């Protein structure tokens, strides 16, 4: 089996670019500067219409920040999973922790049961949990199909030692997918040194705004947005470079 590329797509247009570059799958997210939150119904529908050939996984995350959710947030996640199932996307991506940093197995079980028959990925909540090798076994027991991880490091290159250990421990029972900082210039190294076969990357470039009139004195967001007149979008050329072996 060849290398499988999943693109962290921040818009329907990014999904189009991911498909054009040869990616197998996308994780569609909103609010990328916050680490990704659930995209809108309209964004998902548009992505499906414009790129029908690519598998779409939808992140189920009601807010940025930690992964300890209130009862109200859990209900929002269940409604969003219901939306994802109705839209017949390929998969759902989520993760829940307890206040002590363990995987919240009860809530994960509830979300997984609600998501089926969709594919289920546990996202990088794993990277801030305690006892990752114990948590891996819990995720396998819960029936997760895939784990997205940077090896509990700021990026997947620095996480190579743990990712390689997770791949060995998983032994094919769950897919270990390195993500965060995966680029066209390091993916071959990560593949070689971890034994992973699926990889998660943004493959984005900054595009200039098409606005000709620009009032740059009134920012629309927080400091995480460098400029209101640059648009981050998946770049099909970067996707293709990651797909190539």
The helix content, as a percent range, equals: 25-40%
Strand content: 15-25%
Provide the residue-averaged pLDDT.
95
Nearest-angstrom radius of gyration?
Answer: 18 Å
User: Within the largest sheet, what's the order of strands?
Assistant: 7-6-5-4-3-2-1-8
Shape call: globular
Alpha-carbon distance between the termini?
12 Å
How would you spell out the order of helices and strands?
EHEHEHEHEHEHEHEEEH
Number of strands: 10
Question: Can you offer a commentary on this structure?
Answer:
With 245 residues, the protein is of the alpha/beta class. 35% of the residues lie in helices and 18% in strands. The protein contains 8 helices and 10 strands. The strands form 2 sheets. An 8-stranded parallel sheet has the order 7-6-5-4-3-2-1-8. β5, α5 and β6 form a beta-alpha-beta unit. α1 runs parallel beside α2 and α3 packs parallel to α4. The longest helix is centred in the N-terminal third of the chain and has 16 residues. The chain is globular.
Short description:
This protein is an alpha/beta fold and 245 residues long. The chain contains eight helices and ten strands.
Considering the chains and any ligands shown, give keywords for the structure.
alpha/beta; two-stranded antiparallel sheet; 10 strands; 18% strand; 8-stranded parallel β-sheet; 245 residues
């Amino acid at each position: 089996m060849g290398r499988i590329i999943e693109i962290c797509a921040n818009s329907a247009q990014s999904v189009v670019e991911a498909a054009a570059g040869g990616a197998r799958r996308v994780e569609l997210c909103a609010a990328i500067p916050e680490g990704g939150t659930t995209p809108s119904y309209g964004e998902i529908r548009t992505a499906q219409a414009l790129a029908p050939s690519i598998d779409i996984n939808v992140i189920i995350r009601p807010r940025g920040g930690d992964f300890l959710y209130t009862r109200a947030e859990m209900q929002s996640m269940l409604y969003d999973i219901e939306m994802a199932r109705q839209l017949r996307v390929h998969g759902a991506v989520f993760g829940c922790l307890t206040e002590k940093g363990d995987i919240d197995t009860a809530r994960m079980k509830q979300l997984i049961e609600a998501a089926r028959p969709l594919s289920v990925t546990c996202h990088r909540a794993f990277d801030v949990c305690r006892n990752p090798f114990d948590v891996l076994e819990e995720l396998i027991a819960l029936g997760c199909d895939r784990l997205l991880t940077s090896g509990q490091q700021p990026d997947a290159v620095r996480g190579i030692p743990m990712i390689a250990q997770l791949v060995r421990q998983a032994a094919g029972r769950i897919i270990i997918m390195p993500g965060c900082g995966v680029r066209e210039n390091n993916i071959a190294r990560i593949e070689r040194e971890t034994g992973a076969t699926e990889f998660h990357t943004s493959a984005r470039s900054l595009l200039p705004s098409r606005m000709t009139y620009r009032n740059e004195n009134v920012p629309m967001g927080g400091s995480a947005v460098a400029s209101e007149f640059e648009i981050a979008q998946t770049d099909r050329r970067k996707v293709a470079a990651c797909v190539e072996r």
